[in-house]
Amino acid sequence: MLSLRRYTAADLVFQTYPIRVPSVEGNRYCQLTFCQIWENSVSSKPHRSYTNATLAALMTLARGGCYWPDCNVPIIRMIDGEPVLNLDIAHVRAFEEGGKRFDPTWSVKERNGFANLILLCTPHHKVIDGPRSNLYPTRVLLAWKIAREADGLDALEGLGDLSKADLGVMIADAQNEFLDRLGPALDEFAKTAPELASLLRTVINELTDPRVHGFGISEDALWALNDSAHALAHLQDSASMLADAANSLEHLGDSALMLKQAAIEVQSAANALSDARYGG
């Protein structure tokens, strides 16, 4: 079956010129226009064209910068509040025949594909394609690509097989890590407000008890903690009073007068906390 290729006007070159042919009467000539058409060799050259997925993968897996080892030039720069692309899309194997590291066995689509692309700052792009390009063969650029993208690719592949149970374990692990970091902070807090620190520790232990809420903090518990955080945000003055009272208690010694004064301050702090809690 004959296969026809569809062309646009930009793909073709038209040339017309007149010719004279005898008329049917034999004594006249008719002028006709002959049109010759052939493929436009300029427009038919392969074009650099990258899919949105390819560009997204490069931006994501580049981890923020140029693929040249130890180069800290970022992918994006902010200029007048607008993001501007700061790197070049470079080809491991040259896109055009005669270019550096050109491989004739690779099709145009493959040369435009993700496997053949890296991101480089302009100076490093010029270096790999410049007079010293022999120092940067295909295997070197591929090694840069693998080193830069390996962690991101492993993470993406891991997400593909992630189940709901796996996600639950990851969240629980993250919560446990947070609680491990919270412990020392509560220990320091206990030095000035031991009773309040003990209360907070009891609440946290209850929230994270798998016998009560299962593994991990429940959604209701998280919202409760969020509400508590907003409430505590307005207790700066009361907390300061409580801390001052605790400091007074620390230096009591045998002074009954100081004990009485500290008791008064503790009562004042308690009243302030109660007012803040119930809106009094």
Automatic annotation (TrEMBL):
Domain of life: Bacteria
Name of the protein described by the UniProt record: HNH endonuclease
Highest classification ranks of the organism: Bacteria, Bacillati, Actinomycetota, Actinomycetes, Streptosporangiales
